[in-house]
Design a protein that fits this description.
By secondary structure, this protein is mostly beta strands. It contains one helix and ten strands, in the order αββββββββββ.
Amino acid sequence: MNLLNSIIPAFHRSPAVRQGHRDEDLGATIKPHYEIKETEDAYGLTVQLPGVNKAGLEITAEDTTLRLVGKRAWTRPAGWTALYRETTDATYLLELDHDNAIDLDKIRAELNDGVLRVSLPKAEAIKPRKIAVS
């Protein structure tokens, strides 16, 4: 492991691998920075996706996986040569597994200025209930 990978392990530039097959159309991917918070009624997911607009964002929820793919809208100008660049053109890919505790029909997402906020409501079966004692 080289020094850069030991300092910045979040920059994963290898092709995406999911359940035994490669996503050839994505090429190299980066796992974005994200944060998950939990309340009684829902999970809140905040994902940092700089350079991604609504047209370049794809969110899918299937079985026990939530998958986010964000493609940047920036294109390299003709004749442009980078001398130094801190970011890459790689696609963002985030796959989160859950235990079917999410009501998939009520998921809501909002993208503003490269920050994606997703509300993942809990399924009614797992919400806490107050039980009356007689």
